[in-house]
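Dear U.,

For the methods section draft, I wanted the exact inputs and outputs in one place so we can describe them consistently. I've listed the two proteins in the order they'll appear in the manuscript figures. Please don't edit the C-alpha cell lines directly; just add comments below if something needs changing.

First protein:
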Amino acid sequence: MLSRKPGFDEGRSAALPVAESFQGEMRLNKFIANSGVCSRREADTLIQAGVVTVNGEVVTELGTKINVLNDDVRFNGERLKGEEKVYIVMNKPKGFVTTASDPHADRTVMDLLKGCKGRVFPVGRLDKATTGVLMFTNDGEMAEKLAHPSYDKKKIYQVLLDHDLAEADRDRILSGVTLVDGDVAADELEYIDEGDRRKLGIGIHSGKNRIVRRIFDSLGYDVKALDRVYFAGLTKKGLQKGEWRYLTEGEVNILKMGAYV
C-alpha cells in the first residue's frame, strides 16, 4: 500500500554536511543560494530588488559573477559566505506555517528547529494544516531542483476526506482532472482501509501549490486531514510530530544523484 512506502535505512542521526570549496568565479545568485539565504531563482529577485551589494556597490544585473575568495558580498548589510551544506528532514505538525520568516505568522516551522547549527530554509511548502515530511537545507541549488514544479518530484500523501470517495471520482483523479492552472493526474490512488473509503493514499509528481487539496476540492470533497509521508526519497520514519534529524550521508548522496523514485 502507499501508506507503507519503504524509506531509506536512516542509520545514525548524525550531522553530515557536505563541505564545498569555492574557487575562482561564481555567479552571484549561486553564491547567495550557497550561503543559505534562498534558492537561486529567489536570489535573482533579491538582486533585482537592490538589496545585494558586492564590495560596497549595489548589484542589480542578473548573471553577475564574483570572486568568491576576495569579494565582499552582502545581503541587507549582512556579509554572506559559502556555508557547509546542511540537510534536515522534519515531521511537520499541524498549525505551523512553512516559511523561513513571516512577521504575520504566530508559529513557523523554524520555531521547531531549536539546536540546529547553521542557517537553513524549508524546501517547498506544506500549508499550515498539512503535516508530514518536510526538508530543510542551505543548499539553494538542490532546494530548487527538489521544490520547483518543473522538476516534478514524487510525493505521497495520506488523505482523510469528509465522505467516501466515489469510484467514478477515483477513476477521474487517475485519468486527470482539469484545474484553473491546467490538467493534473495522480500516479497512484489507493484505499488505506478498504472498510473506510474516506482514507486514501495518493502518489503524485505535480509540484503545483496545494495540488492534492485542490484535486479533491474540484470534485466536491473536503480534505479533513492531509499528511505527506514521502518526498524525494525521504520519509518521516522514527520522527514524532515536530521532531527533526539530519540526513545521513547516504541519503544526501541519493538526493544529489537524484537516485530515488
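Second protein (the one for the lower panel):
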Amino acid sequence: MKILVVVLVVLVLICIIYIISTRNALVVLRNKVKDQFSQIDIQLKRRFDLIPNLVETVKGYAKHEKTTLEEVIQARNTYLSAGNTEEKLSADKELNGAINKLFALAESYPELKANENFVSLQNELSETESKITYARQFYNDSVLALNNKIEMFPSSLVAKMFHFEKEKFFEANEEERKNVEVKF
C-alpha cells in the first residue's frame, strides 16, 4: 500500500513538473515570436525614416510624378497606423509595392540615378531591405518553433490547457511571388 502511494505521488510530481516546464517553454517561444516581430518593426522604422528623404530627393527631379510619391507616403502612413500584427503585415506589403514603383520611376530619370543623395539613400534603403528580409526569416523560424510545440503531442495538451494559439507566418504577397521580368 505504501509503495502504491509513493508511486502515485512520484507520477503526480512528474506530471506537474512536465506541465510547468512545457508551459514555460511555450512562454519562451511566444515571447521569442514577439521579439522577432519587434525586430522587423525596428528595421521598418529605419526604412520609414529613410523614405521621406528619398521622396524629397525624387521630388526635385520628378515633379509631375506626384501620384507615385503620394502612394509611397500613404503606404508609409498606413503602416504607422496599423494596430495588430496582421494589419502591419498587410501594410508592409503595400509599402513594398510603393517603394518598388518609386525605384521604377527613378529608372526614367538618368540624372536622378546619378544624384549622390539619391544613390546614397537607395543604398541605405537596399541595405535596410536586406535586414528586413533577415528579420522576417528569424520571425518565421520563431513562429515555426512555437507552432510545432503547440501542435505536437503531448505539449499540445499543455498548450490547450493554457490557451496558447498558433501564430501566423510572414508571407509574401502575390506581386512578390511573380517571376521578375528582365528586359534589355
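Candidate sentences for the figure legend, describing the second protein: The two ends are 87 Å apart (CA to CA). The chain is about 80% helix and 0% strand.

Thanks,
Y.
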